[in-house]
Design a protein that fits this description.
- The N and C termini lie far apart (46 Å).
- 11% of the residues lie in helices and 40% in strands.
- The chain is mostly beta strands.
- The protein is globular and about 50 Å long.
- It has three helices and 14 strands.
- The longest helix has 16 residues.
- It has an eight-stranded antiparallel barrel.
- It folds into two domains: 118 residues, Nuclear Transport Factor 2, Chain: A; 77 residues, Lipocalin.
Length: 236
C-alpha cells in the first residue's frame, strides 16, 4: 500500500507540505514526522507499531480493536501538512498537524477522502520526565469525511460524538468525550479512564476496571476504583 508522503502542493488550505529539512525531535517538525510515520505504518498494515505512537490510553481502544478498525480498507494513505505552532503550558506541549487521508474501501473498491488534524502531546524537558514522556505522541484526531464525500463507514450519531463538561460535588470538573460505544473521562487535561458502554433500561452507563459513569439528563455519577461515587452535573 502507498505510504504517507508529502504532497508537492501541500494540503488543500494552501500551506506548504511537511518539510524534509533537518529538524529536532522535540520541534513541531518532529511532531509532523511522527504523524507521517504513523500514517505510513497504517498504510503498511503495521497497526501495532502505529498504535504505540498514541499517548497511553488516548486511542480509546485496545490494540486489537484499533487494528480491527482498519479492516474495512484496501488502501489507506495520507498527505501531511505543515504543523502549527507549539502550545505550551504547565510543563506540557501540544501541536496540531493537518492531514488529508485517502484510499479505498474493500467493499466495492469505493474511494474515500477525509481531512482534519492530528493533535500531538509531549512533556517538556522538566525534572522527572522520562525519555518516552518527552517524545511526541498522538493525543487525538478530528479526521472527518470531506464535504460531499461518502463516509468510509457509517458514522456515529451526534449524540455519540459529543463532549460534555461536568461540575462535581467534590469541587472537581470532569470532561467526558463520547465516541460510539465508549467514553473517555479526563480531569485537568489528563485522561482518567476510557470506559465501554453497557446497555441499561434508562440513561447511560459506562464501565471498565472499577470505573463507572452513570448518567441521565444533566446529572452524572462517576466512580473510581476504591472510592465512593461522586455526583456531578453538566455545565451549560
Amino acid at each position: 500500500m502507498p505510504a504517507a508522503t508529502p504532497a508537492p502542493n501541500g494540503i488543500e488550505d494552501g500551506r506548504t507540505p511537511v518539510s524534509e529539512a533537518p529538524f529536532a525531535e522535540d520541534s513541531a517538525q518532529g511532531a509532523a514526522d511522527v504523524v507521517q510515520t504513523y500514517y505510513a505504518l497504517l498504510g503498511e498494515q503495521k497497526y501495532g507499531q502505529a498504535y504505540r505512537l498514541w499517548d497511553a490510553g488516548a486511542a480509546g481502544m485496545d490494540a486489537p480493536a484499533f487494528a480491527a478498525s482498519f479492516d474495512r480498507y484496501s488502501e489507506y494513505h495520507a498527505t501531511i501538512g505543515v504543523p502549527g505552532r507549539i502550545d505550551s503550558g504547565a510543563g506540557q506541549r501540544y501541536v496540531n498537524v493537518p492531514v488529508r487521508v485517502q484510499g479505498r474501501l474493500k467493499r466495492g473498491a469505493q474511494p474515500f477522502e477525509m481531512r482534519g488534524s492530528v493533535t500531538l502531546h509531549r512533556t517538556a524537558d522538566i525534572d522527572g520526565a522520562t525519555a518516552e514522556q518527552r517524545r511526541w505522541r498522538i493525543r487525538s484526531t478530528d479526521i472527518k469525511p470531506r464535504p460531499g464525500e461518502a463516509a468510509p463507514a457509517p458514522q456515529p450519531s451526534e449524540e455519540n460524538r459529543s463532549m460534555a463538561r461536568y461540575r462535581c460535588m467534590d469541587g472537581s470538573r470532569l470532561v467526558a468525550r463520547f465516541d460510539r460505544d465508549r467514553v473517555t473521562v479526563s480531569r485537568g487535561g489528563k485522561q482518567i479512564a476510557s470506559l465501554r458502554e453497557e446497555r441499561v433500561a434508562s440513561g447511560i452507563r459506562y464501565t471498565t476496571k472499577g470505573y463507572e459513569l452513570r448518567g441521565k439528563g444533566d446529572d452524572m455519577t462517576f466512580t473510581a476504583p476504591g472510592l465512593p461515587p461522586i455526583a456531578c452535573r453538566i455545565i451549560r
